[in-house]
Amino acid sequence: MSNFYEERATMIAAGDLQEFVPFGRDHCKHHPNALNLQLRQLQPASELWSSDGAAGLVGSLQEVTIHEKQKESWQLRKGVSEIGEEVDYDEELYMAGNMVIWSKGSKSQALAVYKAFTVDSPVQQALWCDFIISQDKSDKDYSSDEVERCICILQSSCINMHSIEGKDYIASLPFQVANVWPTKYGLLFERSSSSCEVPPGPPREPLPTLFSMLHPLDEITPVVCKSGSLFGSSRVQYVVDHAMKIVFLHTDPSIVMTYDTVQGLHSVWALRRVKTEEGNVVLKFSEQGGTPQNVATSSSLTAHLRSLSKGDSPVASPFQNYSSIHSQSRSASSPSLHSRSPSISNMAALSRAHSPALGVYSFSGVQRFNLSSHNQSPKRHSFSHSPSSNSNGSFLAPETEPIVPELCIDHLWTETITRLRKKNSQASKVFITSDLCGQKFLCYLVESELQLRCVKFQESNDKTQLIFGSVTNIQAKDAAPVEKIDTMLVLESSGNLVLYTGVVRVGKVFIPGLPAPSLTMSNTMPRPSTPLDGVTTANPLSKLLGSLDEVLVSPVPELRDSSKLHDSLYTEDCTFQQLGTYIHSIRDPVRNRVTLELSNGSMVRITIPEIATSELVQTCLQAIKFILPKEIAVQMLVKWYSVHSAPGGPSDHSEWNLFVTCLMNMMGYNTDRLAWTRNFDFEGSLSPVIAPKKARPSETGSDDDWEYLLNSDYHQNVESHLLNRSLCLSPLEVSQMKDEDFSQNLSLDSSTLLFTHIPAIFFVLHLVYEELKLNTLMGEGVRSLVELLVQLARDLKLEPYIDHYYRDYPTLVRTTGQVCAIDQGQTGSMQYPPFFTPEPPSIYQWVSSCLKGEGVPPYPYLPGICERGRLVVLSIALYILGDESSLSDESSQYLSRISIAPPKPQAEQEESRFSFRHSASVSSLGERLVVWMSNVGFTLRDLETLPFGIALPIRDAIYHCREQPASDWPEAVCLLIGRQDLSKQACEGNLPKGKSVLSSDVPSGTETEEEDDGMNDMNQEVMSLIWSEDLRVQDVRRLLQSAHPVRVNVVQYPELSDHEFIEEKENRLLQLCQRTMALPVGRGMFTLFSYHPVPTEPLPIPKLNLTGRAPPRNTTVDLNSGNIDVPPNMTSWASFHNGVAAGLKIAPASQIDSAWIVYNKPKHAELANEYAGFLMALGLNGHLTKLATLNIHDYLTKGHEMTSIGLLLGVAAAKLGTMDMSVTRLLSIHIPALLPPTSTELDVPHNVQVAAVVGIGLVYQGTAHRHTAEVLLAEIGRPPGPEMEYCTDRESYSLAAGLALGMVCLGHGSNLIGMSDLNVPEQLYQYMVGGHRRFQAGMHREKHKSPSYQIKEGDTINVDVTCPGATLALAMIYLKTNNRPIADWLRAPDTMYLLDFVKPEFLLLRTLARCLILWDDILPNSKWVDSNVPQIIRENSISLSEIELPCSEDLNLETLSQAHVYIIAGACLSLGFRFAGSENLSAFNCLHKFAKDFMTYLSAPNASVTGPYNLETCLSVVLLSLAMVMAGSGNLKVLQLCRFLHMKTGGEMNYGFHLAHHMALGLLFLGGGRYSLSTSNSSIAALLCALYPHFPAHSTDNRALSGMSKPKKN
Asked: Quick check: helix, strand or coil at residue 1579?
């Protein structure tokens, strides 16, 4: 009989066959082991732990040779990720010789070494272990404790523990260890019993054999055993029985399996913490003394263990005996048993920091060791056994406290004695497996009898203990659990690999890649790719479960293409024995992967297929499994699994069809006669209706094709469409013949497995359907499920359900369809479960009734499967109905829980998991809802997949919580309401205020130095939230601080005299000072608005430190020593900027009055420049309006140039665009052109005039005031007077007039009302390109009649002076007007002749102006940037990377290449303006590319043609543009560029370039990341003034308006 089944047994195809070699083996070969050992031997500290401290080089070499012969072993476990997310890869722990190698997989499945350890003596065992870090020793708190994940390496005399955090512990062992086991609580040691141990005499008690260590820093304590005797009383004692060996230990449930070598029986014990009363019993019991049955005298045991843990060397030290016992230590326990144990796979970890708890007692050596188990001879023993120990250890009592035992093993089960057992029937492999329905089995393999014994066990209802059931024996050579799919693999003695679930046989496993057999057999061996038609077979279950035979046979003939022949010979006769290589054993199961050891010594790793891959099938299977009785559920799943996993199984998309067919067959349907299942498409091939046609070579087609189209779903959908009726289309006649011969007698076979359960299955599938409707991603699945449900509803004659589906999917549900008759006689045998409702439960209906306020019946719910439904119901109940108790009281009022039996304990556990933990600060319903949802594990992603209407109440609650979150919410809640910033703040909440984790202050010498870098008032909390991942803010502070001396690194060459060396250092310092003086500008932007001043204290202004320190002696280098020439007034502008930077820190909302501003006036004259800058900054942030007119007058009459400049600019900026008369008067006094012609000439310094002109522009910004515009237009071309009164720095005056004119007419374009007679654009054009000077109109013509006596300009315009101002004036007047004619004036010249007339740097301004006018044409890509370059330049410009220069007569290559780079820089700058503050990605990428290009050009061989100065200018311009686009974002790539340029200090790098680079840095971190730039007209005008792209050559160069380098808008 069994042969018959065997022959037709189902095959299961294993997938993914790979050769397996332990990863560590390869790594070991390349490990420099010998070298390591030599080094270790030389270090005296490590000799404490080496096995032989005296061994020199020879000893270490001997150890290497030992290592070569050493046996290797390894173990695998499921990967544990650091963050605790679900991962699916292996981790391997490999040991050989003195090495342990821990390798980890990754998402891509490849292993890599994670850590490797080398120790001094051979490794006896290595394992993963989790130590709990907890002060509380009770069992209850286990779950919430922190865990420290460690690797433990056992050597002969000590054990090393290395935690993942990198902590290392070493514990010396007071006895010889046979085996170490990881437990839920820590480590368990088995003491090895040496053969020469002396049987104890009457006065001596044996030492315990089991010890535990709960943490590397705790003591090793003996384990207590509690065994129930036959008479009901249980006794508690130490474990002292040498015959008891541990064969298996599992962490969850925490059990130990032991084997008694004398009786030959296995027992199972629960491992738990000792209860206090048990500990007391043991300690008291041992202290009474007197009786020989006594356990070891506690105090002497304590002394024995403690002394050893201190590492003394007593007389009878076990260390001396090490070599003799070492050889037996492994043999005592079962060989390499541990490495196979699956218990290793549940590990996890963290850290503990408390001091070692080792004893600090010292006693005399001999007495302490009278209990040593390692005495070499009885003679030694009698000598060391001192008489005083007879007095019950009283001599120790006063000094020592007893070691309190920590763990206890509690007896649960012992196997029954059946017949005389063989002595060596110890289990060689033990594991826990559960079957498909969650029943657990403890399986142990007794190799000597080729038996796998499976013991069923379950938790008692109160969860306190495990109840063990019957034992089932399975013949097996080897076995391993397949944890992921709840099955196990069994290797039969015949060599077949069979899959079992629990004790139910599923089928043989077919491994496609094993080597083919010899040639004689090749004909019976089908190709591995041939699908074996295993679906039509009877199920192998029947072998075990009796005559289920007729229930399980269910033919599914047309499932597969019948042309593939099934060779039944293969499954029976051709076992692997004949293949030459057969499977020898199974090892290392992880998830659904196992390794097979073959007889030829090689190993392969295979993957067992999963139960189902598609989510829909998995959910349906879960639901059906939940509702069926266990035995039937297992049979149903086994049947499905064998159909699904047969060789050549289904592809993903046909899995559902296969599932439907399989399920309906088990319900008694004949799927081949049913119309909609008949056309199922399994292999993604053509439908079976067409399949036979493939054989026919005819190309003409046939009537069948038409029939097929008419029968198709598509045709029927179109036919039932509503439009058909309105268009009066008559339905086509489909030949009904085929359907008729199907529909004659379709009835259900009532003898099938699931027939009686059809209503229950239908109902749970309906609930799954409702659940899937709540997931917008499962739409496809819902549609597939409807077809099945409709068929079942029709046959069960459930009209309301059919109606319900029709309303949901009118096109899918046909009004008529095939009905399969169910025999009236049989209807009685169908069980309608108690929870079945005639009306279909509908979640939408339920929610809708709730919202209307109608009473609603509880909604049925499948625990663990319909979690979304439960969530929606409870959240509506809480939030809409306002029932606060809905979450707490088991929610019976709203949910009816479906179950077949009384509720399972597991279900209760789930309920409690969702119980609502009331948070202290939860007040409103919305808050309760949000906190509860995050406790249940609901995330934003889940919210997005809920249908919108259903999610609305939840979103509403989230919306309300987002505005007023509580401070103590956990991170998950903050993520759910979209407030991640709060969770980060919460993490940092325990730090001292003002210091955050990442941006703590840069450590420095003294507190005072720390105070004055001017950046202490930044809001560290906000910045550490914005840039939480790195220390970029600290880096910016380091780059921008100017208060500490710079490091001057100069090498003194032999030929340099000391004096020259000092000069060299000072010259270098001068170079570095150019950079230091440029820093305040960047710092002002970085610290913008970050400070609220205290009215009683002056504003701290950080000092500008221009000294240096020269290593190595840290000597001070100073510029004032007189060795080198330092430009006069070098620092005046730098100090001014320093003052501006300090002033800009003040936030606009601060309370400031006139008195405070005056109070800040410095006592020392040298600080006047900084105060001048401070006044200008107050104007920029709007506070200068509070300064009394009297004080303004007072400052101006002092005649200090810088103060006047700062004050005029500040007052004007504060009155931006107001045309304020008093300010106008104030400014006019300083501008000769605005004074009446008859007034006396005032001697106003040139720079003050410039400031006043800009001030006029600011006060009249955007007003198009006629008189002002007229004057300014004339001032652009102001000639040098006859007395040379205006000849110095004319450029800056002309530029200021141009910018002021631009601001006055900002953005007005051609609508300048009342100014048409001024011809503003034409006049500006003339200033830009040159020509004859027009006759001056207006009142100043007298002044300019006589020309200058020294400067010969004649009556032509000096374009070099007037061009920049005129160009920018045009740009600002026509800003964003897209005025083509004006823009074309600004186009770069396109002939060589014309190019020679324009300075290349003016081309930058022209391109910028043109692009600002054509604002809407600016595109963020390099193609657009290049389009600004005229053709002649594009074609002839040399690419800077070429080595050879092309020679050309009529082309000036220098002009061309300079024009090229300046035009590109101009276009880039306009890109920066257009996308300022937008963080536009394409603009960023485009500009970043150009910045990189200019960096490479600078180092190119041809850079000299263009000129490094020009390239540096262009690079600075592009960098500024980048910073404008990314303003306030702190982008890392831009920061890297700025940092790189910060470090460049020699060569062409002058003050202006440093200014540009640090302005870029400041813009990038504008206001500490809280501000960005605006692109309003006013902002662009301010940016143009601030970032004017002609940088000053040195700090006193005033031609480029350096007083204005501050953007005023943010």
From this structure: helix
